[in-house]
């Protein structure tokens, strides 16, 4: 596949680019400043908030993946306006397949335990309100895009290696409190080529 990755210099983005290249995909990494990537990766420097600037990086691709994250300590939304810009560029260029990574923490889910629903998530909302509000808006924008979208909803991310993980369509994973960035990247690439995930959110966790 021809894949474009936004957020390519982040922890998950780096893994996405690496794994995609190892799998033989043609990869374009969109970055704000110069960065080192594996041989064969096309690097495009562009402002993700400018749809016209990112159109060349999107045109002709089989899938576009956003691994952008909310900047730590920032109060202004990042992921939601970026999603709007990416969607506009995709509509202009006629590209359909979009996979966006957000999170699981902001989701109220019937599969969550009583403690998670009534204690843990309300507590985390107090500390992560800016990021989670950004993710809520991102989910809404992506789901209303009219594109062939998939939203990846991981729990807490770690820097560990790969091990067996679970997924759930349109639900969080019961008891799945963490997943490594390596396995999130693996699952995201798998979802990008899986038509069964189109129009759905994919929960993940160990």
Automatic annotation (TrEMBL):
NAD(P)-binding domain sequence ranges: 7-195
Q: Which residues form a coiled coil?
A: none
Highest taxon in the source lineage:
Bacteria
Q: What one GO molecular function would you report for this record?
A: biliverdin reductase [NAD(P)H] activity
One Pfam family recorded for the sequence: NAD_binding_10
Could you tell me which InterPro entries the record lists for this protein?
NAD(P)-bd_dom (IPR016040), NAD(P)-bd_dom_sf (IPR036291), Polyketide_Oxido-like (IPR051606)
For this entry, the protein name equals NADH-flavin reductase
């Amino acid at each position: 596949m021809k894949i474009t990755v936004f957020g390519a210099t982040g922890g998950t983005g780096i893994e996405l680019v690496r794994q995609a290249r190892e799998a033989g995909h043609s990869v374009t990494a969109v970055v704000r400043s110069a960065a080192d990537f594996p041989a064969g990766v096309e690097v495009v420097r562009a402002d993700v908030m400018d749809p016209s600037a990112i159109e060349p990086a999107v045109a002709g691709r089989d899938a576009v993946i956003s691994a952008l994250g909310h900047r730590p300590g920032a109060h202004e939304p990042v992921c939601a306006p970026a999603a709007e810009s990416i969607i506009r560029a995709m509509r202009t260029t006629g590209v359909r397949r979009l996979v966006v990574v957000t999170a699981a923490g902001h989701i109220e889910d019937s599969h969550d335990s009583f403690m998670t629903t009534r204690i843990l998530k309300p507590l985390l909302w107090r500390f992560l309100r800016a990021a989670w509000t950004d993710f809520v808006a991102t989910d809404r924008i992506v789901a209303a895009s009219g594109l062939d979208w998939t939203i990846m909803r991981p729990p807490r991310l770690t820097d560990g290696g790969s091990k067996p993980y679970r997924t759930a369509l349109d639900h969080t994973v019961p008891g799945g409190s963490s997943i490594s960035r390596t396995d999130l990247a693996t699952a995201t690439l798998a979802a990008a080529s899986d038509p069964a995930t189109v129009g759905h959110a994919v929960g993940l966790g160990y």
